[in-house]
Structures are given as C-alpha cells and as structure tokens.
Amino acid sequence: PSKDIFNIDLPTTFIGDVESELYTINGVLIAKQKHVLNGNRFTIDLATKPAGVYLLKTNVTGATTFKIIKN
To answer: Of 2, 18, 24, 55, which has the fewest beta carbons less than 10 angstroms from its beta carbon?
Structure first.
C-alpha cells in the first residue's frame, strides 16, 4: 500500500514505452497512460485518485495486471 506514487516493477525486461490502463476494482477504466521505463520499472501517480483498490493493466508480454492498494 502507498499514498500517492507507486513504483511498478515489471516481471521481465521490456524495451520501449509501456502502456497502462487503470481500472477501479469494479472494472471501470479511469486512466490510460504511456510510461518511459527506468530499467524494468516505471512509476504511476495516484495523488488525485481516492483511496481504494485499483487494477493496473500493462501491455508487457501480452497483458500483465497489477493490484494496487492506495491508502
């Protein structure tokens, strides 16, 4: 859990930009972004989003989904 900034570590090395989609736990798409990688890591800022559980889907190796808990 975190409050605003989340570091996302990808399971594999990925070359190029990463696209992500942020969903509420109910499956509603609330944001779509492109990220520049720093190694196999990128950050996502949820400062403007309310506390809760989110799902972050990326285009890495097909589709990779991360569960994010914001305090």
So the answer is: 2
Token pair for 33: 């972004």
Dmax (CA) for the chain in angstroms is 32
Burial per residue of 15-24, b for 16 or more beta-carbon CB atoms within 10 angstroms, e otherwise:
eeebebbbbe
How many Å apart are CA 69 and CA 71, to the nearest integer?
7
The dihedral of CA 50, 51, 53, 59: what is its sign?
Answer: positive
pLDDT, tens digit (0-9, with 9 covering 90-100), for 20-31: 999 999 999 999
Contact predicate 66/2, CB 8 Å: no
**Other C-beta atoms lying within 10 Å of the C-beta of residue 64:** 17
Is the pTM higher than 0.70? The answer reads yes
